[in-house]
Specification:
The chain is 46% helix and 6% strand. It is mainly alpha-helical. It folds into two domains: 94 residues, no CATH class; 147 residues, Cytochrome P450 (Cytochrome p450, Orthogonal Bundle), CATH 1.10.630.10. The strands form three sheets. It has a two-stranded antiparallel ribbon. Strands 2-3 form a two-stranded antiparallel sheet. Helix 6 crosses helix 8 and helix 7 crosses helix 11.
């Protein structure tokens, strides 16, 4: 459902530009496709909400989860509706899971193309964690090089290369250009991350650059904004970073990684698939061997 939802987001609808020609979308089947994914997602969210209303549901030892908190707010504020809650859940499942998965996949792609960086990241993780059996979130702050690998991946392969669109509230003059109010603005984070005026050797995967720099994802450095910037920066930035770091750390900790027999690192395709979230065009196929010392 998440993949179909992403596909619908990037599908051309005639009615978006010519309202009177909406019947074309009906004939093309795009309207039925939209309705189908909407009904499936709505039923899925309805089931989650009903489950959280069930008094017999087993509660987490950590207390309330995100949906519990939303339902509590719904109970206290009549202005918050089920539609609002479903909208937040849509953001969590679609925007919050697909992007993290894309980031981890691109990180593994770059590490396989640079074996010396793969070894450095792997050795750092295993040296820190030892024989515990897994990497936990509380240990991520002890993995500075891994964090740099994630940042460099986001610089070269931001999961959302065109940030969420903005709209100007008033007339502004920008670099000599007049931008009228109500103008839709798209920020190209992909191009910004590869700008030779801001980055030395911008096309090269070099996590070490972040060890020599204080540039971070907090939105204060305009040359590196994979999560956006300002008051409307991605609200799940911290969760997204932790998710990527934790997933990547455990992959490197638990397995030794190799390319399929007969394949060289130069053979790894870097082609991107179209979409709001940019994935690899072809799957990344690797051979994983369980690390015997863990």
């Amino acid at each position: 459902m998440a993949e179909e939802c992403q596909a619908i987001f990037s599908t051309f609808f005639v009615a978006d530009y010519f309202a009177m020609l909406g019947w074309v979308d009906v004939i093309r089947g795009t309207q039925a496709r939209l309705q189908d994914v909407f009904l499936k997602l709505d039923a899925f969210y309805r089931r989650l909400i009903d489950d959280h209303h069930d008094p017999r549901r087993r509660r987490s030892d950590d207390g309330e989860d995100t949906l519990d908190a939303l339902l509590r707010l719904h109970k206290d504020d009549s202005n918050i509706t089920d539609a609002h809650i479903k909208g937040v859940l849509l953001d969590i499942f679609v925007a919050g899971s697909d992007t993290s998965a894309s980031g981890v996949e691109w990180a593994m792609t770059e590490l396989m193309r640079h074996p010396e960086k793969l070894r450095r990241a792997r050795d750092e993780v295993r040296g820190c964690v030892g024989r515990k059996g897994k990497v936990e979130e509380s240990e991520l702050h002890q993995l500075p090089y891994l964090k740099c690998v994630v940042k460099e991946t986001l610089r070269l392969h931001p999961p959302a290369p065109l940030l969420v669109a903005r709209e100007t509230m008033e007339h502004v003059k920008l670099d000599g250009y007049d931008v009228p109010p109500k103008t839709t603005i798209y920020v190209n984070a992909w191009a910004i991350g590869r700008d030779p005026n801001s980055w030395e050797r911008p096309e090269v995967f070099e996590p070490e650059r972040f060890m020599r720099s204080s540039v971070d994802t907090d939105g204060h450095d305009f040359k590196f904004i994979p999560f956006g910037e300002g008051r409307r920066i991605c609200p799940a930035k911290n969760v997204g970073m932790a998710t990527m770091e934790l997933a990547l750390a455990n992959l490197l900790y638990s397995f030794d990684w190799d390319l399929p027999e007969g394949m060289k690192k130069e053979d790894i395709s870097m082609d991107e698939a179209p979409g709001i979230t940019v994935h690899r065009k072809s799957p990344l196929v690797l051979v994983a061997t369980k690390c015997g010392g863990i």
